[in-house]
């Protein structure tokens, strides 16, 4: 357990950018050791035998706050013991609770129709801070306290460290198979138009928005520079359930053309592990091997279809099968910071308390979360304002911005959507560049007026 405690302290401080600071922070209630540190965080008992894994380990609402930041365990008290600042708020246990999805192992009976833990059932949502990266706020407090203790610490300039523009290929084409031709002929756009899509050039298919997505990624790469923007396409390679439809095949002519085109666009690939594999994680190995066969390169990134990574310990399977990074950790029903952080964090299994090598990239927002009536059901202005706020908070946390927009959601093809995801996506690309250079609300308002927004 000590390796996890040490990692948590290093993570909170951001020691990857300024090595050595963790030696000034202790996590102990042994008063004889207080003088060894500049800041001591007092354990609340969360990790004690007889508490951890029981109902006694669950936070009680309403939560206390310390300097405006909610704390899950301990008391909102600071005291100086000679030259050491003692913090009675257990920020280690609070951060651990959020980063590990500990709540989900205590509430396994709470799942939606797809087997997922709903965001609106989560403690951060119920406590009103899901859209705040509070773990990163803990780190900012900790660095401030170390400064008060006389430690020379660099003041980070707020900066989005990386942008991941990610796209799940759930439905690669609108009408490129006999099945889709029959569907559209009988119940959709009619035979003539369907035949034109089916028999025409691939880039005229309404869902073939990949060049458009790559062009916008190139714009952001140019604006941000320094390798700070990456584009990843997550591709399905298995699954036979209803939820995994359409069951496209990677060896077909159209899919080979699509994958080769994305390679030429210098895109990364990840496995979009199937809904079936979410229920039976052992299947992921076969899907990974299939995708590697047709991509022709190792696959190290994963995102679960439907964001249906069901149980926290299931992530161990990804590490076992050679994945290095996972991009699943967001809620489908509400946008925000599911793990309490905007920064990539190593996976900690809350069942056996093991620190793994798998890196989790928290998903900031998904297109369907914003618009779907089952989820947030926002209008165009509300969606932009929410995303802009998440960009600002990610910047302040020196975090990563991880977007998920599907290729078909940015199509110009007719839909029943209330507003255009394509237009929103374009505006958000501009907003990311703008927020990277400025963070002034008045300037932001002026910029939005220029776009004709209210």
**Main sheet summary:** 9 strands, mixed
Q: Let me know the average pLDDT.
A: 92
N- and C-termini, Cα separation: 51 Å
Low-confidence stretches: 440-454
Quaternary class: single chain
The beta-strand count equals: 15
What general outline do the C-alpha atoms trace?
elongated
Count of alpha/pi helices: 16
Strand content: 15-25%
Strand order of the largest sheet: 12-13-11-10-9-8-7-15-14
Radius of gyration: 23 Å
> What percent of the residues sit in helical stretches (DSSP H or I)?
25-40%
Coarse structural class: alpha/beta
Write structural notes for this entry:
The chain has 454 residues and is α/β, with parallel strands linked by helices. Helix content is 36%, strand content 16%. It is built from 16 helices and 15 strands. The protein has helices at 2-13, 91-99, 102-106, 123-127, 134-148, 178-187, 191-199, 210-224, 253-264, 275-279, 284-295, 315-320, 367-371, 380-396, 421-437, 441-450, and strands spanning 25-27, 39-41, 64-66, 69-71, 74-81, 84-89, 162-169, 229-235, 268-273, 301-304, 325-326, 345-349, 354-360, 365-366, 400-404. It has a 9-stranded mixed sheet. Strands 1-2-6-5 form a 4-stranded mixed sheet, covered by helices on one side. Strands 3-4 form a two-stranded antiparallel sheet. Helix 6 packs antiparallel against helix 7 (191-199) and helix 14 runs parallel beside helix 15. It is elongated. The model is unreliable at 440-454 (pLDDT under 50).
């Amino acid at each position: 357990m000590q390796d996890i405690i040490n990692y948590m302290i290093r993570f909170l401080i951001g020691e990857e950018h300024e090595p050595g600071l963790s030696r000034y922070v202790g996590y102990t209630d042994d008063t004889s050791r207080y003088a060894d540190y500049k800041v001591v965080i007092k354990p609340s008992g969360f990790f004690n035998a007889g508490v951890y894994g029981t109902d006694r380990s669950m936070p009680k609402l309403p939560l206390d706050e310390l300097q405006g930041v909610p704390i899950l365990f301990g008391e909102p008290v600071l005291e100086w013991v000679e030259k050491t600042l003692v913090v009675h708020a257990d920020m280690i246990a609070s951060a651990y609770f959020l980063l590990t999805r500990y709540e989900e192992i205590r509430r396994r009976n709470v799942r939606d129709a797809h087997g997922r833990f709903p965001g609106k059932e989560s403690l951060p949502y119920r406590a009103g801070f899901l859209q705040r990266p509070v773990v990163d706020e803990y780190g900012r407090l900790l660095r401030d306290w170390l400064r008060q203790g006389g430690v020379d610490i660099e003041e980070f300039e707020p900066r989005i460290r990386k942008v991941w523009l990610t796209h799940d290929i759930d439905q690669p084409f609108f009408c490129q198979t006999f099945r889709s031709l029959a569907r559209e002929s009988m119940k959709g756009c009619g035979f003539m138009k369907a035949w034109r899509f089916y028999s025409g050039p691939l880039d005229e298919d309404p869902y073939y928005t990949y060049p458009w997505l790559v062009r916008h990624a190139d714009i952001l790469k140019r604006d941000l520079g320094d390798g700070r923007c990456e584009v990843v396409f997550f591709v399905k390679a298995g699954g036979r359930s209803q939820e995994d439809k359409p069951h496209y095949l990677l060896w077909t002519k159209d899919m080979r053309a699509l994958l080769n085109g994305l390679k030429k666009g210098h895109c990364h690939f990840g496995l979009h592990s199937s809904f079936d594999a979410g229920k039976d994680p052992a299947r992921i190995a076969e899907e990974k091997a299939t995708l590697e066969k047709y991509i022709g390169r190792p696959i190290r990134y994963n995102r679960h279809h439907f964001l249906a990574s069901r149980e926290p310990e299931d992530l161990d399977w990804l590490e076992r099968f050679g994945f290095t990074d996972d991009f699943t950790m967001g809620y489908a029903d509400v946008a925000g910071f599911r793990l309490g952080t905007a920064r990539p964090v190593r996976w900690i299994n809350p069942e056996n308390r093991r620190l793994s090598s798998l890196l989790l990239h928290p998903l900031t927002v998904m297109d369907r979360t914003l618009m779907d009536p089952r989820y947030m059901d926002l209008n165009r202005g509300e969606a932009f304002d929410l995303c802009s706020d998440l960009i600002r908070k990610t910047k302040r946390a020196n975090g990563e911005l991880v977007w998920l927009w599907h290729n078909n959601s940015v199509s110009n093809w007719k839909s029943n959507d209330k507003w255009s995801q394509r237009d929103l996506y374009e505006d958000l690309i501009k907003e990311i560049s703008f927020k990277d250079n400025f963070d002034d609300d008045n300037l932001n308002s002026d910029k939005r007026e220029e776009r004709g927004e209210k």
